[in-house]
Amino acid sequence: MKKLIAAAAAVVTTATFSALVQAEVPMDKYNKSCAICHAAGTAGAPKTHDVAAWKPRLEKGDAKMLESIHNGFNAMPPKGMCFDCNDEDYKALIDFMSTAAK
Ligand code: HEC
After folding, report:
1. Which Gene Ontology MF annotations are present (predicted)?
2. Interior CA angle at 75 toward 93 and 45, to 5°?
3. Contact call for residues 44 and 75 (beta carbons, < 8 A)
4. Are 69 and 79 in contact (CB under 8 A)?
5. Tally of structural domains, the chain
6. pLDDT (0 to 100) of residue 24
7. Residue 10 falls within a domain, yes or no?
8. Ligand 1 pocket residue status of 92, Cβ below 6 Å
9. Is residue 82 in contact with ligand 1, taking CB distance under 6 Å?
10. Which of 73, 79, 86, 91 best tests ligand 1's pocket when mutated (most atoms within 8 Å of CB)?
11. CATH number at residue 62
């Protein structure tokens, strides 16, 4: 019985952990904001799912990525034009755009 409880606890822990790591991508927010530029690479935006284009940007670190979004960065408007996005949304959106299509 003890073993069963331990196994169940392990399953729950793993499930919670992956839920935290893979925050739900807010596709509605992506479509009405980021996609406008990042889907086609408009104005030099790193294209969605173009892993190589995103690599040097990601290397600047999460904090810098969020700062670029909040303040704007060259042709990228402040907040990426998503005014109801929070930092969790931004992180999920960056992850979505910077990795290969699933
Ligand atoms: C109006 C067009 C536009 C929209 C909308 C937009 N971006 Fe961008 N984004 C850009 C451009 C252009 C760049 C590249 C700027 C440069 O490197 O000069 C960029 C760069 C970035 C970068 C890299 C910043 C850096 O420091 O290298 C991140 C992260 C990013 N965008 C996230 C987002 C997210 C998340 C959204 C949606 C919430 C979004 N963008 C919406 C145009 C846009």
Report:
1. electron transfer activity; heme binding; iron ion binding
2. 45
3. yes
4. yes
5. 1
6. 87
7. no
8. no
9. yes
10. 73
11. 1.10.760.10
Establish if 7 belongs to a structural domain. no
Evaluate whether residue 87 is within a structural domain: yes
Q: Is residue 74 a part of any domain in this protein?
A: yes
CA of 85 to the centre of ligand 1 (A): 14
The rounded Å distance from CA 82 to ligand 1 centre is: 11
From the CA of 42, give the closest atom in ligand 1: 12
Q: Which residue has the tokens 């960065």?
A: 73
Residue 88's domain spans which residues? 25-98
How distant, in Å, are the alpha carbons of 28, 58, 63, 64, 79 from that of 75?
Answer: 22, 18, 19, 16, 12
pTM reported for the whole predicted model = 0.84
Structure tokens at 97: 């755009």
Q: Is the CB of 43 under 6 A from ligand 1?
A: yes
pLDDT tens-place string over residues 47-101 = 999 999 999 999 999 999 999 999 999 999 999 999 999 999 999 999 999 999 9
User: For residue range 16-60, what is the model confidence (pLDDT) as tens digits?
Assistant: 444 445 568 999 999 999 999 999 999 999 999 999 999 999 999
